[in-house]
TrEMBL record:
It comes from Oryza glumipatula. The keyword Nucleotide-binding applies. Belongs to the ubiquitin-activating E1 family. UBA3 subfamily. Keywords: ATP-binding, Ligase, Nucleotide-binding, Ubl conjugation pathway. It is an enzyme of class 6 (ligase). PANTHER family: NEDD8-ACTIVATING ENZYME E1 CATALYTIC SUBUNIT (PTHR10953:SF6), UBIQUITIN-ACTIVATING ENZYME E1 (PTHR10953). One of its GO terms (cellular component) is nucleus. Catalytic subunit of the dimeric E1 enzyme, which activates NEDD8. The lineage of its organism: Eukaryota, Viridiplantae, Streptophyta, Embryophyta, Tracheophyta. This is NEDD8-activating enzyme E1 catalytic subunit.
Amino acid sequence: MSSPDEDPPTEPERWRDLDMLLSRPGNLVHADFNPSPGLRDSLGSLVEVLVVGAGGLGCELLKDLALSGFKNIHVIDMDTIDVSNLNRQFLFRVQDVGKSKAEVAAKRVMERVSGVNIVPHFCRIEDKEIEFYSQFSIIVLGLDSIEARSYINSVACGFLEYDSDDKPIPETLKPMVDGGTEGFKGHARVIIPGTTPCFECNIWLFPPQVKFPLCTLAETPRTAAHCIEYAHLIKWNEALKRAELFGISGVTYSFTQGVVKNIIPAIASTNAIVSAACALEALKLISGCSKTVSNYLTLETLNMVLFEVHYFSLTICRYNGLDGTHINVSEFAREKDCLVCGPGTLIELGTSTTLSEFIKMLEEHPKLLMSRASVTHEGDNLYMQAPEVLEQMTRPNLGVPMFELLKGAARTTVHVTGMAENNGKKVSSLRKLRVTFKGVEESSKMDERVTFKGVEESSKMDESS
């Protein structure tokens, strides 16, 4: 996108390279790719994209997606603009401080790119109904929160349906492109539910929160972080003095912010490069003009240069201003029993089991441990914990048998939203459950069934009964 002081390029000059890409065949194109001079206009009018996050990476994503031919874009962000954002979130100005990031970012991009329509949503991602997310062909993430990524991942995976052989049904796929930056590091990741590892499958990639032993802080500090954390826990204004006492250097204001508030410096160029990679992957997923990275591309840079390589496995591209460029390939396997992107936890109920008993069972289930659960089925709210008006409206369903609420289906899928444990913390989570009813249909996979108490039933137990 041109600078604010320059006139934007004229049509069709702006779209020349993109139209050339979409109108020619190639060796790396997807099998279903149908090159056409009018493909950009077709994709622009038919495809709806959701961008989650309108911060440093989100601003770049909105610009890049708009310049990649996407015309129908929604953006959701709960934050307002702060003065500290202005050094890297280029869509914002001083007069925008205090305003919604989503609303201002949408307005600025629409002013510069003709024909694009961006709908802002100034709210939390959890405030939107699940059906809101169903309208989008692809979801692009520009988040800095593991919890928020996990939630959107569970929402997208929740739309995935499996056939009788537990194979993903292509029509129900909702792909995601996840971008993330941290200083000079960043990644662009493609998630195709049921095919590539989802966010939950590889959540172990994210390092655990750093914790310091209290005895180390109090008796034998060895690093500047130890001194700062000691001061944070005991006496804030003694961090520098304590470091000097033990001959430790490095206690600066910016480092203190990083240790105490977990604040990581943001680099504008990192956001720009990662956003470009994410927008390119989104274009490839939707158009088929080239094969996408299998699931992961990471950057570790001082002077940033991006080399894209196409593999059917994990692609890692690193450039270091001192050491040069390193490209490594390894494979990350999808968890077949993943609670999020798998077919769903299979649960057997009796035909007389009420909704209230079902919700109680979710609290005791060893894999779910979900409290304050809200339950939906095919877009219908069976029971909602909040807001109060919906809780009152759905409360009578608590005493109704699930078999009746699920319209007599012998086997169906329900979605539950509630608080579940994630990395040692209780966070908002969405889970997909496959529900069957005992005596209505006998499943061939009896070893997967779970009773109310969370005890697995083997096929031998069923045969004996």
